[in-house]
Design goal:
The protein has helices at about 35-55, 60-70, 70-100, 100-120, 125-155, 160-185, 195, 200-215, 225-250, 255-275, 290-320, 325-330, 335-345, 345-375, 385-410, 415-450, 460-465, 470-475, 480-520. By secondary structure, it is mostly helical.
């Protein structure tokens, strides 16, 4: 890297060497697809469908708690099973798309997504809903890698591709931010399952337009699809996330924690070792020798890791602590949507002006500071301050995610576009899952210990309130005036305390990640 204003090959001109070489014949530039911008709209619809589903459920958590009565741990699984199954399969599905065809796998995944949405909408129990969300994660993993790799096939020109990736990133980050708003509108008029039925018309539109507008592309020499690698990667991710959740819930000395952590570490180690030996690996781990590639993946992972757990509980804070309606809570989070949309589209321009290093590290630092402000949140914090924090979080997330996706995609050869794009999306989804698992578990561990025993409240009511904030509010409504008010106030105070602690932990982690990215991208 020759300057501190380095950018990816998509965002700046190519480097030249001082070593003289023999003249070569000019290579023909591929003819752009005349329908590429229409096809991009279809890919934007596909990525929006997947990312909205990751966050649309957050405003429905209070309704699900009241209807299905899940335990605190079950509530966490409902929240994060989608993201971490998605993360565990993205690399495998990205490699599969390179082999069977990216368009074909995207359309198969869209069909499966619609079927799983029906199962989730009418789930009669927490276990059913968790299983349906897991199936949605499997289907989503077949869609996501194809969207980004098809962009590379559709846009051979680097400047057009940068603009297309910016639009794609805006859809991904703004769609995630818009999920709560969409959920709020639906929950204002319908039951919680309606947030899944929304997927059905979008899936139908995606199947029709995708079959018509999207080109087919695949790796002409894909090699063998290695099933043991799929098993190692999926088992490793699931085991590590489960160990994190159990350590927070029962303590690191609980027997399941070291066992599952060891299994996860072993499987991930075996996965890496196997990729180094295969002629056609699912994930070319040698790509991590590129410092910019590594910085991009770690930047996306750490940023979303810090954000995922905190944002998951923000909607509960707005509804159960500040007593907003679902629609009002969704509107309150709208600044995050606006910030993500704007910076995603402007990522290429920001990177040209500030350089990749400055843009990536600056975005992560801004995110860390914004999360730190959330750590000081109180029950009566003015909304204007909250809106400013949401705006900063959305803007920083849009910049980091879009820039990371561009860096990762352009570091890999075109024939491995599916597997390479899966790396960026794996970092995003795995970060979300780990964030919910770790910081959600921090809140789950702190909340019952901080709740205490309010005066005038019976032991049975306190035990019920310790399950979750939703259970506490419901229990408080069933108690006589003063006792119910005391229990509700104590529960809200305990929740805000736990959420603030989780946000501060997230802020420290993201700021440390910014320092690591700065070091990886330093001038040599």
């Amino acid at each position: 890297m020759s300057t501190t204003r380095e950018t990816s090959s998509t965002l700046n001109t190519s480097k030249t060497s001082n070593i003289p070489t023999a003249p070569t014949a000019p290579t023909a530039t591929p003819t752009p697809d005349p329908r590429r911008w229409s096809a991009l709209a279809v890919l934007v619809l596909a990525v929006t469908l997947v990312v909205v589903d990751a966050t649309v459920l957050v405003l429905a958590i209070p309704s699900i708690t009241e209807t299905l009565a899940p335990s605190a741990t079950g509530l966490l699984w409902i929240g994060d099973i989608y993201s971490f199954v998605l993360a565990g399969l993205l690399v495998s599905m990205g490699a599969l798309s390179d082999r069977v065809g990216r368009k074909r796998l995207l359309l198969i995944g869209a069909s499966a997504f619609g079927a799983a949405s029906l199962l989730a909408a009418y789930a009669p129990s927490p276990g059913w809903l968790i299983a349906a969300r897991a199936l949605l994660g499997v289907a989503g993993a077949t869609i996501m890698p194809s969207t980004l790799s098809l962009i590379r096939a559709l846009f051979p020109d680097s400047r057009e591709r940068a603009r297309a990736i910016g639009i794609w990133g805006a859809a991904a980050t703004a769609g995630a931010a818009a999920g709560p708003l969409v959920g709020g509108v639906l929950l204002e008029h319908f039951w919680w399952g309606s947030v899944f039925l929304l997927n059905l018309p979008l899936v139908a539109l995606l199947l029709v337009l995708g079959g018509w507008l999207l080109p087919e592309s695949r790796n002409p020499e894909p090699g063998r699809f290695d099933l043991p690698s799929v098993g190692y990667s999926m088992t490793g991710v699931i085991a590590v996330v489960y160990a994190v959740k159990e350590a927070a819930a029962h303590g690191p000395a609980h027997w399941e924690v070291p066992v599952t952590a060891a299994v996860g570490a072993f499987c991930l180690w075996r996965f890496v070792r196997r990729q180094l030996r295969l002629d056609a690996p699912l994930l070319d781990v040698r790509l991590f020798a590129d410092r910019r590639f590594t910085a991009a993946v770690l930047g996306a992972l750490i940023a979303v890791f810090g954000l995922g757990g905190v944002v998951f509980f923000t909607s509960q804070y707005l509804q159960l602590v500040r007593e907003y309606s679902p629609l009002r809570a969704g509107l309150a989070e709208l600044p995050a949507f606006a910030g993500a949309a704007v910076t995603s589209v402007l990522t290429a321009r920001i990177a040209r002006r500030a350089g990749t290093r400055g843009a990536l590290v600056g975005g992560m630092a801004a995110l860390g500071l914004a999360l730190g402000v959330l750590g000081w949140l109180r029950q009566d914090t003015p909304y204007l301050l909250l809106a400013a924090v949401f705006l900063a979080v959305g803007a920083a997330e849009g910049l980091v995610y879009t820039l990371s996706a561009d860096l990762v995609l352009t570091a890999a050869p075109p024939q491995k576009a599916g597997a390479a794009s899966a790396v960026s999306e794996t970092a995003y989804e795995l970060g979300t899952a780990l964030g919910i698992a770790l910081f959600g578990s921090v809140l789950t561990a702190v909340y019952p210990r901080t709740l205490g025993h309010p005066a005038g409240v019976g032991a049975d009511a306190v035990d019920a309130a310790r399950q979750s904030l939703g259970a506490a509010v419901e229990t408080a409504h069933a108690l006589p005036g003063p006792a119910g008010q005391a229990l509700a106030a104590a529960a809200r105070g305990a929740f805000v305390h736990g959420m603030g602690l989780a946000a501060l932990c997230a802020a420290v982690l993201v700021l440390l990640g910014a320092g690591l990215a700065w070091r990886l991208l330093r001038v040599r």
